[in-house]
Each structure stands twice: as C-alpha cells, then as structure tokens.
Input
Amino acid sequence: MGMSAGAANGGGGRRGGRRRGSRAPVSEINVTPLVDVMLVLLIIFMVAAPMMTVGVPIDLPETQAKPLNAETQPITVSVNDKGQIYLQETEIPIEEVVPKLEAISKTGYEERIYVRADKASQYGTVMQVMARISAAGFKNLGLITLQEQE
Output
C-alpha cells in the first residue's frame, strides 16, 4: 500500500539500537515538577503574608502622658492646617527641612526632634515631613500632642 518495509518491522523507529519493549532505568531526576510546585508555594506565601498582618484588630489605649523634662530646648517642626511647615517659628518649604535640621542640630543625628501637627492638617503632609526627617538619619523623632483634659 504506501508503507515502507523498514517502518513495518520497527527498523525506522529504533533509537540507539535498543529494542522497543526494553526500557533502561533513568538515572536523572526531573526537577521541573519540583520547581513548579515551589514557585506556586512561593506565590501563595507572597500573597498571603501581607494579609496576615494587615487585618490585626487593635484597640489603642488612651493615656495621660506627663510632659517630658528636657535640659535643652528640643527642635520643633510644626505643620499647620494649611500644610505650611515651620522649623521652630520660621516657615520653610518641605525641601529645606532636612538641610536646616542638619545645620542647627547640636548633637548630630542623635538630636531630639519633635513634630507638632494641627488636627486639621493633612495626614500625608505630616507623614512626608516625618519620612524626610527619618530618612536623613535622625533617630529620636517624637510627636507632640495636647495633654488630655478631664
């Protein structure tokens, strides 16, 4: 019909001289399924890990903190409700906060810096100021609030 004689007896389909029914044991481990499983587990943990920390319900306590006694006048950065930033009593742009702090700090990056913010000020502005101060290397950063009235 249209078949060749070599294909009918298995002559064209042989590999390496082995017969069709005999299989030699494979001495190599196929790691592809293992890698696939590990990548899937990695993705699952990468997605699940942030979800475990975000939804922690906490109830912050109300405190009546006493004023701190300081021997030296601390550096104060203030943010008002219009988003204006003040270093001590002088208005400055946000870009100049870190250079001015570095210039006036007596003890370097160990200087105590207090951040005051108006209740009506935007949270983002306050966080930008604090992030810049922290990123510059100042470690002692505190927030000032009014003492709770009874």
The longest strand covers residues 75-79.
